[in-house]
Structure formats: structure tokens, C-alpha cells
Design brief:
about 280 residues, alpha+beta, DNA polymerase, domain 1, 4-stranded antiparallel beta sheet, about 35% helix
């Protein structure tokens, strides 16, 4: 076995019909072979076939149910037939994903269906795969180019993308450093590197019909919207109708706008219920 490859055992000589129990008695890492000895009757030699890493599978698309959202990442979890994948998503896509989530009870397993085009990233130094998800294939292709810029990895790129792909691409093609420099984590020096690396390569992306979000996405406002929805679900889980839960949460927030977490809002609602005659 060598780094960057996988090995598949291939039978070279089958055991005789008198074979009984088998046990491995010797292997050779340098030759890539081993022997299984068969209690004195026959042996089977294994030849390990090296498969180039270029043939190893990577995830390109996930289709499942939205199971969790964490704006601090920003990440989502997609449940694919009982297996959950954590996926990093650019912040500019968060409003659309929130729209998909709606008022669904994610914690209760009632998340809506979602499909994400996946950028799969793993290196020798960081072998744990990082999955970055997009709602449109063209967004993933832009992201692939964006991460070729020196100093911009997948995590930094996802957090930097608080405006649409078409807006970023036009800024690069027009050498608009002011727009690029306002992106999170992208200063004037990084903006110059981005322009030098990608100018002339994003003409198609600049013409994309992706909503053209030119104003930075307000991450804090989006998180508040999701927090309210989660608080409503928590209260409804206690046996109240969704309508009553929503009304109680809205009443509490209107009287105490400083409440910022699901726990704080839920406790405030419960305290108010306790004080009712």
C-alpha cells in the first residue's frame, strides 16, 4: 500500500477442495503480497493491486433532507438515508437555504428535501475532507477557480462570499478593488491577488443569472430569523399549536428584543406562562 492509492486483493490461486480454516501467516509491505495458509492443505496468494488516487471517488452532489443549520459555520447537515454530511456553505446562499427550511422542524427530523452541488477538498496535510455546498453548479465552478488564488482556502472563500457569484465576478473583471476589499477576510492586498489570478477567466460567471446579490448578506439578521423559528418549534413541541407558539414567541421578543438565543426565548415564554392566572 502506498500513500494516495488503494489496494484490492485479487485471488491468484484458489484453495483446494480440502481446505479448512485459514489464517494469515506472513505479509510483505514492500512487495504488496501476502499468503493465507490453509491448515496444511493449500495456500492462497494475495496480490495487492495499486489503484491510482485519481480513480478514488469523491462526492460531487448530495440529495437528502436538511437536518441542521448552523450560521456560525456557516454549515448545514444533510441527511442522506440516515447518514449525515456536514457541508460548509457560502454565506450568500444562507437566505435561500433558510427559505428552503421555512418553518420545518429540523430537530425533529422533518427537514425538507435539499440538493447541493459539492466541492470536495482534502489534502495530504489535511486529509479530513471538507465539503462545500452550492445550489447551482456554476457557483461551484466559480468557487473552484476562487480557491486557486494564493491564500484563499475553502473555509475563507465560503465566509468571504457574502455577495453573489455574478457580483464578485464582475468586480474581478472590472478590477473593482473596492467591492472585493469589502468582502469578509479580503483586504486590498488579497483583492489585488484575486484580480491578478482570475481576471479574464470569469466572463461567463459575470453574466450569471443568480439573483445578483450586490448588497452584503446580513448574517446576524438571518440568524435571528432562524432563532425565532427554532423557538417556535421548541414551544410547539411542548404541546401547543404552532399558531399559539408563534404568537407567544413574537410577544416575548417584542417586549424583550435583547433575547438572542432559542434557550433565552423559550425560558421567557415559559416564565410568562407560569405567571398567568
Amino acid at each position: 500500500m502506498v500513500a494516495g492509492s488503494t489496494s484490492t486483493p485479487v485471488m491468484r490461486r484458489p484453495a483446494t477442495s480440502g481446505s479448512r480454516s485459514r489464517r494469515m501467516v506472513s505479509t510483505s509491505g514492500s512487495s504488496g503480497t501476502g499468503s493465507i495458509v490453509d491448515s496444511g492443505f493449500a495456500s492462497v496468494d494475495l496480490h495487492l493491486v495499486r489503484i491510482p488516487c485519481s480513480l478514488c471517488r469523491v462526492i460531487t452532489h448530495l440529495q437528502g433532507n436538511l437536518a441542521r443549520m448552523d450560521q456560525s459555520g456557516p454549515t448545514v447537515e444533510v441527511d442522506v438515508q440516515g447518514v449525515r454530511y456536514e457541508v460548509l456553505v457560502p454565506i450568500v446562499l444562507w437566505p435561500e437555504i433558510q427559505g428552503i427550511a421555512g418553518e420545518s422542524d429540523l430537530a425533529g427530523g422533518g427537514g425538507p428535501s435539499i440538493g447541493l452541488h459539492i466541492f470536495y477538498h482534502a489534502t495530504a496535510n489535511n486529509p479530513t475532507p471538507v465539503l462545500v455546498g452550492f445550489l447551482r453548479r456554476a457557483e461551484r465552478e466559480f468557487f473552484r477557480k476562487f480557491t486557486t488564488v494564493e491564500g484563499i482556502g475553502p473555509a475563507k472563500a465560503a465566509k468571504a462570499m457574502n455577495i453573489s457569484v455574478s457580483t464578485i465576478a464582475r468586480a474581478i473583471e472590472q478590477e473593482d478593488r473596492a467591492v472585493l476589499s469589502k468582502m469578509p477576510g479580503i483586504g486590498p492586498r488579497s483583492a489585488d491577488k484575486i484580480i491578478a489570478t482570475l481576471r479574464g477567466k470569469l466572463i461567463a460567471e459575470a453574466a450569471m443569472h443568480d439573483g445578483g446579490v450586490a448588497q452584503p448578506v446580513d448574517a446576524a439578521k438571518m440568524e435571528n430569523t432562524r432563532t425565532v423559528a427554532d423557538a417556535v418549534e421548541t414551544i410547539a413541541a411542548l404541546g401547543y399549536s404552532r399558531g399559539d407558539a408563534k404568537r407567544m414567541v413574537e410577544d416575548v421578543i417584542s417586549g424583550s428584543p435583547e433575547l438572542s438565543s432559542v434557550e433565552e426565548i423559550t425560558l421567557a415564554v415559559l416564565r410568562r406562562l407560569d405567571t398567568r392566572p
